[in-house]
Amino acid sequence: MATIDWRKAGEDARRMNYNPAQADAYAKSLNNGQSLSQRDQQNFSQAYIGSGSSSGSGSTGGSGGANTFQKVTGGVLGAISGVVETQEQQGYLPNMSQEYIKMSGLISGMLDAQGNLLGGMDLLKKVWKETSGQVGLYYQQQTELLGQINKEAGLTGEFSKAIREELTNTNPELLRMGIGFQELSDAAVSLVQDTGRFLALNSQSWKEAGKTSAAYVGTLSDLVRMYPAFEKIGVGASDATAQIEKAGKGSIALGLQAQKVTKELGANIGKINEYGFQNGIQGLTKMVQKSIEFRMSMETAFKIADDVMDPDKAIDMAANLQAIGGAIGDFNDPLKLMYMATNNVEGLQDALIGVAGSLATYNEEQGRFEITGVNLRKAKAMAAELGISYSELANGAIAAAERSSAASELLSSGLSLSDDQKEFLTNISTMKGGRMTIELQSDKMKEYFGKNEVALEELTDAQVGKLMEFQDEFKKLSTEDIVRKQATDTENISRDMNFIAALLRIEFGKTGTQLVKTLGFDPAKIANSSKEGATTAASSIRAGGEEIRGMMDEAAVKAGLKDKQGNTTTTNPQPQEHTHNHNFQMGDVTSDNLKRSLYTDPVFHDSFKQQWEKGGYLQN
């Protein structure tokens, strides 16, 4: 087979105005469809872009000057050293402040003369101008991500590459929610480490997880850490996200803080395997919400459920509660208690709230509910029989009395309200002056009501409708809308601009990577070659080192600095003329070139002698 002149081939590809992909295909066709070796690829690429000497006419495309592609690729080649630098792992990903472009750098140029936002293309140009220097950030992110996924998560090979690509493609969408690349990569590593499996989510699942975590949980890592517990009850990551989103959104509509509800749900999700729930995860979610409303921990109900699963304990508990007058409602029936512990633990919590609600009475003088007198002794005895702390029972008693008062006040006003509406109004009210009262927010609401606060018993249909607008809005808002409303308008604009910037950074980063490879610089290919080369070089260095030491000993003897036995002489030698006869034996290229350079360079002899006399050169 004839030898191919790859420089000539590169010039031919340039002369035919092939683009990089066409040029690459042309080179492979000349090489029987195979990729070129590193050396051949470099020769081809250098000639293709018009660098170095030419074996042809020296034409650069017919114009005598560099064409547009040559200028672009020349810039890319000039940045190869920067690519290499960003491929050196530092052990940490760039943080959000490094990834995020501040609005102060964009806002002045985003508006036209009339103060309106620029159109699509003009806006894109502005963002590109601000992000054109961020391609290096793309390479740095990819390098550090590889370190995290391969070293910390233990993945490797094509699977690792696929995961890193998916995370990179997810980055822009999550930036729009205020979630940076570092937080995303940390969550991906945590998912593998916490489950102990190579569990990976696709871009769509990460997007759903991102918006759910931002709206209802806290951070993306907080959400991901819940996944292993959900898996133990047979619910996968994506389904867990959907359940957490449902719990968070439903809690907001009831006037409860979503983050507290979802945190408690995640902490107690394993209880699904331990007790019988009539409504599964929805039942557990309702228990969490009631534990917040009635200020009683979840463990209180589960402690009682553990006890009444035993028939003897269930019978004893009911009998002892009857003796002290505390066997109220379902606690008067041991069989019902046993049934609820194994089939409806939510009902057991309701029964406990019912028992607690009978203990508190209203103190007119102090304007609050309290447990006093005979009820105090009864409450302490009941707590002991139930196996729970008195403080837990007392907290539940006060909360139950307050909520019962709110329900009575709403009922007395003659309003027709759903259970959700009653719960929402009760959750946004507080005991004040002996009445459940809503303290109004905003000047607009105060103007509408004509006062700063309103008691539940005073509400009219129109006023309830005005308050219910809040709940209606909560129900209509999508999770993505909630995320955007958690941020200021300026922050949302900034997130949108950074979304565009991230897309540009990633797309140009990918293009740059492909272009650099087309031009002959392939770090992965070079890394494979360097492994083999380093092993060969190591053998050469060791062999060369032995020869160099021998040469130095020989030189020392001839210079009178050592005798033939290798001992250092103590007398100052007189200047002598020496004739150096060297026999060059062609062996390893590295050591042969080194010997040739040393022997033929007279400066080496003088420098060697001077250093020896100073006592600083390879003394034995």
Please outline the helices and strands.
Elements: H1 6-15, H2 20-30, H3 38-48, H4 68-78, H5 80-86, H6 96-99, H7 120-131, H8 135-152, H9 157-175, H10 181-195, H11 203-217, H12 220-224, H13 227-232, H14 237-253, H15 258-268, H16 280-293, H17 298-308, H18 311-323, H19 334-343, H20 345-357, E1 361-363, E2 368-370, H21 373-386, H22 390-412, H23 419-427, E3 430-432, E4 435-439, H24 443-449, E5 453-455, H25 461-476, H26 479-485, H27 489-518, H28 523-558, H29 589-600, H30 602-613
Q: Report the C-alpha radius of gyration, rounded.
A: 39 Å
Report the uncertain regions: 51-84, 582-591, 615-620
Q: Strand order, biggest sheet?
A: 3-4-5
- Report on the biggest sheet: 3 strands, antiparallel
Mean pLDDT: 78
Q: What's a concise summary of this model?
A:
By secondary structure, this protein is mostly helical.
Explained architecture:
The protein is 64% helix and 3% strand. With 620 residues, the protein is mostly helical. The protein folds into five domains: 74 residues, no CATH class; 181 residues, no CATH class; 101 residues, no CATH class; 71 residues, Helicase, Ruva Protein, domain 3; 86 residues, no CATH class. The protein has a three-stranded antiparallel sheet. A hairpin with a 4-residue loop joins strand 1 and strand 2. Helix 9 crosses helix 11, helix 11 runs parallel beside helix 14 and helix 20 crosses helix 22. The radius of gyration is 39 Å and the shape is elongated. The two termini are 56 Å apart. 31% of the residues are buried.
